[in-house]
Every structure is written in structure tokens, then in C-alpha cells.
Write a structure and sequence with these properties.
The protein is elongated and about 60 Å long. Helix 1 packs across helix 6, helix 2 crosses helix 5 and helix 5 runs antiparallel to helix 6. It is mostly helical and 162 residues long. 86% of the residues lie in helices and 0% in strands. The chain has one domain.
């Protein structure tokens, strides 16, 4: 995938990590999730979003419903992505290099990542429609701040930027 397209996909992914991470925990209910550290993070992030944006009870309910509706789609997409990445790894580490197969598998992964980015965008738009203009602006601002922190952390740790 070309660098600009990859960057867009990565940015979209980072901007909506909160949404998809919260979906899993939210669909099961927060109280059921408390024994799982990832679910606790999801709960914490949702609570931070709630207080940071000043969400009303009605907004919280609507956003939770969006998470619930999107959960199955995102779980299926990420499960498929993991499986396809394993397939790619097998091809890369095979005894003989099959360039055509590797490229085909990489394209398949790119398609799935594109589908996930579109799904994230749709979810973000559904949430933005629930927010007041002021909340929507603050949400975008918080996402940009988060993206900057993640990028700074990547640079600091020596990881390459996507």
C-alpha cells in the first residue's frame, strides 16, 4: 500500500480505537467485564469520553447502541484480518518465494483494512451526528491530541511511523 493511503488508514484507525475497543465491552455490559483488563480499559475510555465531552444520558444511550450495533461487524472484520495476516506470514516464510501469492495476499489484507477504515468512518459519523456542534469540535480536537501523543510515542520508542 502506498504511504499516503497507509497513513490515512492508520490515522482513521487511531482516531476510532476508542469506538471499537469500547464496543466489545459495551455489548456485554460494563459490570460483566470487570475481570478483564482490556474491558476495564474500554470502560475507562468510554467514561473519559463521557466526562470529556459532557455527554447527556440520552447521548450515552445512543452511543452505546451504536457500539452494540457495530460490535459484530468489527469483531468479524478484525478476526478476518488476523487470519489473513497469518496467511501472509506463512507465505513470506515459505521455503520458496511465491511473489504473486504474497502480493495477492497483501492486497486482500489491504482490502480488509480499507473496509475497516470505512466502517470506522461510518461509526464516527453516526456518533458525530449525536453530538452537539461544540462536542463534535471537542471530540475532533481530542482525537488530534491523541494522534499526536501516539505519533510522539512511536518516534520516541523508535518504531517506524505508518
Amino acid at each position: 500500500m502506498k504511504k499516503p493511503i497507509r497513513s490515512i488508514v492508520v490515522i482513521a484507525g487511531m482516531a476510532s480505537t476508542l469506538i471499537f475497543a469500547s464496543q466489545f465491552a459495551q455489548a456485554r455490559g460494563w459490570k460483566e467485564c470487570c475481570n478483564h483488563s482490556m474491558d476495564q480499559k474500554c470502560q475507562h475510555k468510554f467514561e473519559k469520553m463521557t466526562t470529556g465531552l459532557g455527554l447527556s444520558e440520552q447521548q450515552q444511550t445512543k452511543i452505546k447502541e451504536i457500539f452494540k450495533q457495530e460490535r459484530e461487524k468489527s469483531t468479524t472484520a478484525y478476526t478476518g484480518l488476523r487470519a489473513e495476516k497469518k496467511n501472509l506470514s506463512s507465505l513470506v516464510h515459505a521455503d520458496k518465494t511465491d511473489e504473486a501469492a504474497i502480493r495477492a495476499q497483501a492486497s486482500k489484507i489491504g482490502g480488509i483494512e480499507g473496509d475497516i477504515a470505512v466502517q470506522r468512518s461510518r461509526t464516527l459519523n453516526q456518533i458525530s451526528a449525536i453530538l452537539t456542534p461544540e462536542q463534535a469540535q471537542k471530540f475532533k480536537s481530542l482525537q488530534k491530541e491523541r494522534d499526536c501523543r501516539i505519533e510522539k510515542s512511536r518516534k520516541h520508542s523508535g518504531k517506524r511511523s505508518e
